[in-house]
Design goal:
- One of its GO terms (biological process) is response to antibiotic.
- Pfam families: Acetyltransf_8 (PF13523).
- Pathway: Siderophore biosynthesis.
- This protein is α+β, with helices and mostly antiparallel strands.
- It has 6 helices and 7 strands.
- The protein has one domain: Gcn5-related N-acetyltransferase (GNAT) (Aminopeptidase), CATH 3.40.630.
- Helices cover 31% and strands 22% of the residues.
- It has a 7-stranded mixed β-sheet with strand order 1-2-3-4-5-7-6.
- The longest helix is centred in the C-terminal third of the chain and has 15 residues.
- The chain is globular and about 40 Å long.
- It starts with a strand and ends with a strand.
């Protein structure tokens, strides 16, 4: 498995993925999301977008965002819990390209590998914030070593804030 930065040439592929039902269920409007990703690629957003590939085939999308860079509106209005996390925290989001790959252990495997890379880069407070209704994602993230943050339970709105615990 490899991770590579998303480029402008990847936007048509991501547009296709964002139009798929299992993406539309949890992501926003496809055009809006593509605009955000374009901003990342072109340096207007500090979030780092990646495609992950297995045997050279793009199999999904993963991104890393910095808590400190998201302590502004509109993020604070939607996620005031950001203020309760350490400045050096980073968040991760991921989606598998094909629905046929859901519930097969791929997401948790990808997430473990990506977290290992982040830890090599010195990141020690890594979060993920799934919708609690996305039980498949919550299970995958738990398999990858993420646990709910008890101090924030009930205060994070429509997300379940989970932190990676390397000892798990």
């Amino acid at each position: 498995m490899t991770f590579r930065p998303v480029t402008l040439a990847d936007l048509p592929l991501l547009a296709d993925w964002l139009a798929r039902p299992h993406w539309r269920e949890w992501w926003g409007d496809a055009e809006t999301e593509l605009g955000y990703i374009r901003d990342m690629i072109e340096g207007r957003d500090t979030t780092e977008p990646f495609l992950f590939e297995i045997a050279g085939i793009p199999c999904g999308y993963i991104q890393m965002w910095r808590i400190a860079d998201n302590r502004v509106e509109p993020w604070l209005g939607n996620a005031p819990w950001i203020l309760d996390l350490p400045d050096h925290s980073v968040g991760v989001d991921l989606s598998l390209a094909d629905s046929a790959n859901l519930s097969r252990g791929i997401g948790s495997t990808v997430l473990r590998a990506f977290v290992a890379l982040l830890r090599q880069r010195g990141q020690d407070f890594i979060i993920i914030d799934p919708d609690p209704a996305n039980l498949r994602a919550v299970r995958a993230y738990a398999k990858a070593g993420f646990r709910p943050i008890p101090e924030l339970e009930g205060r994070t709105g429509d997300c379940l804030l989970m932190r990676h615990h390397p000892e798990d």
